Amino acid sequence: MRVFTYILWSILLSLFVVSCGSYWNQPVTNKSARIGELTSGSMKLKNMPKPTEQVVAGVYNFRDQTGQYKNIETGSSFSTAISQGGTTILIKSLEDSGWFTVVERENLGNLLNERNIINTTREQFAKAGNTDQKPLPPLLFAGILLEGGVVSYDTNIITGGSGARYFGVGGSVQYREDRITVYLRAVSTTNGRVLKTVYVSKTILSQAVSANLFKYVNFQRLLEVEMGYTVNEPVQLAMKDAIEKAVESIIIEGIEDGLWKTKDGDVMDNFLVSEYKKEKVIDESTLLHDRKQRFRHTKNEVGLSGGVALLDGDLKDKKAGYSFRLDYTRNLSSSFAWNLNVNPMQLKTGKSFKNQLYSIDTNLRYMLLPNDNVSPYVYGGVGMLGDYFMLANRKGKDDFFFKVQYGLGLNFNLSDDFSLFAYGEHHLPFTDKLEGVKSGKRNDFYYTGGIGVKFYF
């Protein structure tokens, strides 16, 4: 027991050493101001190919449209859940991309007032005899307006964790995921037409890891050790990442629609659009909580699997024998399929009983999550069981028995052509003679289970 406790505690400590970078960089001193952190999309946006000509863009307001306030356990809070500086973040992203010349529109009144002050001052100098006063140049007008905002901030879309404790040694991991969503659209200032609209979402992760030891190491000597940390992804950085991704998307979709082009020519334009479409297909096939979808158009499946068979009959000793299965499946719809399989197996029971059996089964299968990469399924049907070595030598006895079976399984998609699967079945033959002993009122039955590989065509 003591050795197991030390091993468990060592594993917990190793987890902290290997994966908990935040734990080993805890703040213990004051830090000076620093330049803001980059997100995953910052460098990608800065490294984009440059345009043939920058687009003059104006941003009047990119605001928080959720109206949400921070959640606190007690009382009320007047602090907003997300940053109110969306316009500033968007302008910074537009500048970083190198595709836009951004003109001031958020505080246009201040700009106009300052220009009036300059003009008034110059007029006064002109009246005083200083004739070298030139009028101010006209303001730069925007070719497009970028509008939109943060449309949702969903908290606790998924929460969970895990933990274990054994003889005073334990640890736990907890997590929570929030989600922020932004919309961005480009509007033509000449005719008011909405040129493009993009939609981007970003998850915000919070994690808590803890480990503890509570154990008597000697008589009246109690050892208590606790360690842990909590990491919350900053909402502002998540918002910045989402806005940068929206800017990247609107640039590439504008290239696709011929609104603007890169100075590197059609080859670079086609490459950017092609890569973006690949990413878009993956993102659009992924549901909430990272449920990746795979839409197959093939109708046929061939599978090969191996596993074990366990007989539950009249003899006391239960032993596992081998089981192999070759099956063909025809998909009738996205969820339903018809299956036919051949299953050679060995049933073992008692002290020395062994028997070779063969079954041919047909089933109707239902996939619970037909388009997910990991999908459970259930099935059931009828079959025919043959015993060539024992029953064939019994005069006047049938060589085959009819049966029913049902089971459940789990499918793991590896690609469009292959997948792994695991299954477990319960078989109910209409006989009490599988092990050569007829006793009691109930019939014999057996279980099979295994893992295998499946090919789609």
Automatic annotation (TrEMBL):
UniProt xrefs under SUPFAM superfamilies: OMPA-like
Organism ancestry: Bacteria, Pseudomonadati, Bacteroidota, Flavobacteriia, Flavobacteriales
PANTHER family (UniProt xref): CURLI PRODUCTION ASSEMBLY/TRANSPORT COMPONENT CSGG, CURLI PRODUCTION ASSEMBLY_TRANSPORT COMPONENT CSGG
GO cellular component term of the entry, any: outer membrane-bounded periplasmic space
Source organism superkingdom: Bacteria
Pfam families: CsgG (PF03783)
InterPro entries reported for this sequence: Curli_assmbl/transp-comp_CsgG, OMP/PagP_B-barrel
Leader peptide range in chain numbering: none
Keywords: Cell membrane, Lipoprotein, Membrane, Palmitate, Signal
Name of the protein described by the UniProt record: Curli production assembly/transport component CsgG
Membrane-crossing segments per the record: none
